[in-house]
Specification:
90 residues, mainly beta, Thiol Ester Dehydrase, Chain A, 2 helices
Length: 90
């Protein structure tokens, strides 16, 4: 069970997708992620999906850091926030 091995993780709290143009199966797409900010328990990101250099979608995402054992939001560790700020996300 995931909760026993990974007791802390992100979940998507909010997502807003703006579809601008369609894409087809096997199209080459670029996904660009921007760190927008954070609170104690959440991160805000924007993702742009591009095809041939043109935006085809814009996605606003709010992630919340959860303690899987307690099933509650908890403070995001500083090292994780720093990785998002520098976009060194694994």
């Amino acid at each position: 069970m995931m909760l026993k091995t990974n007791s802390k993780f992100f979940v998507v709290k909010k997502i807003k997708v703006d579809f601008i143009k369609p894409a087809k199966l096997f199209d080459n797409l670029d996904i660009i992620t921007f760190y927008i900010g954070n609170s104690f328990t959440s991160l805000n990101l924007i993702q742009k999906i591009e095809k041939d250099g043109a935006d085809i979608s814009k996605i606003e995402v709010q992630l919340v850091w959860i303690d899987g054992i307690k099933s509650k939001p908890i403070k995001i560790p500083r090292n994780i926030i720093d990785r998002f700020k520098s976009m060194e996300i694994v």
